[in-house]
């Protein structure tokens, strides 16, 4: 499954899945009931129309704007208690926006929260931020993190835009600059959003945890070497680690960094993360971990950690030495530090033995009532329901992108779709038109689906695909 790591611009970065949801609540912008009795001051900015909440009053009634149902009108989108103008860049859908209210990582018995808590327990003195709105600026998500203007992660086919300058964060690193201005040891847990294809292990919303630690550049070497040497727990000793990474021009030290300080920071990063996985996989007697070189716009050098699990290498996290520009912008030019970002779903799927990523979003008690806080236990399957396959064939066009097609499927059919795959493609010899056929596997996780019900969905899908994608059905 997609770990959701932002790689170098040349590398493809991975995908996710979909589902059925109640009809979105469409409300007029500015509706008084939306804001209740709260005082709300609305201000028009260049690209966003923001409703400012008065913090005191929010506290009084204990309201959480992130729990407010999002609303979409033809002119604006309200999410997390704020309203934004839509424009030609808008591609976010109600199906996706509604996910912002779920906050799975805040439900103590949810596997995502259980993994989060276990990871956080390895970093007890870190300041943990868990209530950032998923709505961020393109500056926060990309520019502040040194993303090139043409980085593929910015593409409309990969990212959900509310408008040209406002988007749903695609990674927790979007908050790195802000949190590093406030503290030297930080964790951020949040839901992140990426447009993607549909298959059994990918979902357009997933959860990440970000961690970072800074050291005074002058004393980093001494402080770090002493800490590692005096760690009596020695967790990392019981891990088989392969580390063949080398600092080369392809994965370089930053010019501004002192070699010894950078190497100490890198060692502290790997030591801390080895300890973290050791804790998470405490039941695995022979945990095997490998470090490989990676590239991220906001760290250098950069690495990924993989774990050998049931004979396969599982990519767990991306990390590296933070780009000094970010620390300078955070007002910390005299510090050096590391950062990591990991996908919680991937770890939860493996540790709980959960067969389908859609289950994390299930409201079924048979799922939700299985787990206890702070405890990893194997998922007990409820029966697997039969699939129902439907094909759709159409002449595609120049603007066609599979992620856009999958977005329509998500919006029309929701979580009842287990996967979507292309089963045929050909170009007409004379007209040069390209025909594609997709097979959609409809399978609910918690009930039998009827052919009649699926036919209705498929008919709606056919209409919507034509309307939104301007393709011609065959
Ligand atoms: N934000 C990166 C991703 O989503 C992960 C990462 C975080 C890498 C911090 C390096 C440092 O892929």
Question: What does this protein structure show overall?
Answer:
This protein is of the alpha+beta class and 474 residues long. The chain has 13 helices and 19 strands. The longest helix has 22 residues, at 259-280. It is globular. The chain starts with 31 loop residues before the first helix and ends with a strand. It binds phenylalanine (PHE).
Summarize the structure.
This protein is of the alpha+beta class and 474 residues long.
Q: How is the topology of this model organized?
A:
Elements (H helix, E strand, L loop, with lengths): L31 H4 L4 E5 L4 E5 L1 H7 L9 E2 L3 E4 L2 E4 L8 H6 L11 H11 L5 E3 L5 E3 H4 L24 E3 L7 H7 L2 E9 L11 E12 L3 H10 L10 E4 L15 H22 L7 E9 L2 E11 L2 E11 L1 H6 L5 E9 H9 L12 H4 L19 E8 L6 H12 L3 E11 L6 E9 L8 H19 L2 E2 L1
Helix pairs in contact: 4-10, 7-8, 12-13
This protein binds phenylalanine.
What key attributes describe this structure?
alpha+beta, 13 helices, 26% helix, binds phenylalanine, tRNA binding, transit peptide, Phenylalanyl-tRNA_Synthase, ligase, phenylalanine-tRNA ligase activity
Strand numbers in spatial order across the main sheet: 6-9-10-15-14-13-12-11
Largest sheet: 8 strands, mixed
- Bound ligands: phenylalanine
| Class derived from helix and strand content | alpha+beta
Q: Poorly predicted ranges (pLDDT <50, ≥5 residues)?
A: 1-5, 7-61
Number of DSSP strands? 19
Domain FDX-ACB: 383-474
Catalytic activity: tRNA(Phe) + L-phenylalanine + ATP = L-phenylalanyl-tRNA(Phe) + AMP + diphosphate + H(+)
Protein name: Phenylalanine--tRNA ligase, mitochondrial
Pfam families: FDX-ACB, tRNA-synt_2d
């Amino acid at each position: 499954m997609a770990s959701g790591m932002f790689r170098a611009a040349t590398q493809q970065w991975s995908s996710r899945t979909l589902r059925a949801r109640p009809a979105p609540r469409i409300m007029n912008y500015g509706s008084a009931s939306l804001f209740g009795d709260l005082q709300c001051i609305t201000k028009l900015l260049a690209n966003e129309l923001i409703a400012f909440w008065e913090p005191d009053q929010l506290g009084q009634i204990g309201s959480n704007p992130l729990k407010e149902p999002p609303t979409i009108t033809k002119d604006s989108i309200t999410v997390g208690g704020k309203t934004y103008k839509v424009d030609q860049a808008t591609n976010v859908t109600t199906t996706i926006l509604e996910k912002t209210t779920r906050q799975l990582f805040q439900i103590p018995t949810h596997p995502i929260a259980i993994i989060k808590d276990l990871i956080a327990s390895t970093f007890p003195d870190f300041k943990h931020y868990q209530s950032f709105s998923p709505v961020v600026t393109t500056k926060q998500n990309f520019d502040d993190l040194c993303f090139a203007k043409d980085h593929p992660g910015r593409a409309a086919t990969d990212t959900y835009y509310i408008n040209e300058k406002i988007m749903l964060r695609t990674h927790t690193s979007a908050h790195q600059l802000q949190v590093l201005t406030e503290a030297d040891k930080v964790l951020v847990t949040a839901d992140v959003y990426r447009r993607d294809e549909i298959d059994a292990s990918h979902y357009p919303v997933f959860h990440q945890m970000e961690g970072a630690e800074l050291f005074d550049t002058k004393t980093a070497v001494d402080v770090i070497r002493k800490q590692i040497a005096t760690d009596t727990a020695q967790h990392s000793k019981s891990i088989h680690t392969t580390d063949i990474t080398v600092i080369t021009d392809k994965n370089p030290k930053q010019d501004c960094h002192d070699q010894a300080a950078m190497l100490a920071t890198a060692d502290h990063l790997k030591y801390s993360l080895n300890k973290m996985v050791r804790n998470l996989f405490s039941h695995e007697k022979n945990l095997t971990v490998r470090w490989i070189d990676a590239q991220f716009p906001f760290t250098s050098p950069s690495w990924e950690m993989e774990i050998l699990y049931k004979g396969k290498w599982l990519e767990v996290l991306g990390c590296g030495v933070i780009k000094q520009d970010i620390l300078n912008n955070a007002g910390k030019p005299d510090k050096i530090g590391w950062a990591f970002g990991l996908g919680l779903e991937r770890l939860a799927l493996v540790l709980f033995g959960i067969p389908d990523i859609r289950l994390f979003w299930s409201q079924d008690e048979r799922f939700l009532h299985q787990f206890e806080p702070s405890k990893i236990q194997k998922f007990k399957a409820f029966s697997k329901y039969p699939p129902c396959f439907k094909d759709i064939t159409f002449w595609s066009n120049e603007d066609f992108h599979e992620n856009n097609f999958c977005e329509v499927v998500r919006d029309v059919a929701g979580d009842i779709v287990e996967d979507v795959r292309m089963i045929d493609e050909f170009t007409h010899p004379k007209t040069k038109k390209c025909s594609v056929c997709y097979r959609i596997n409809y399978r609910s996780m918690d009930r039998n689906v009827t052919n009649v019900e699926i036919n209705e969905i498929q008919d709606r899908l056919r209409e919507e695909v034509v309307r939104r994608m301007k393709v011609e059905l065959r």
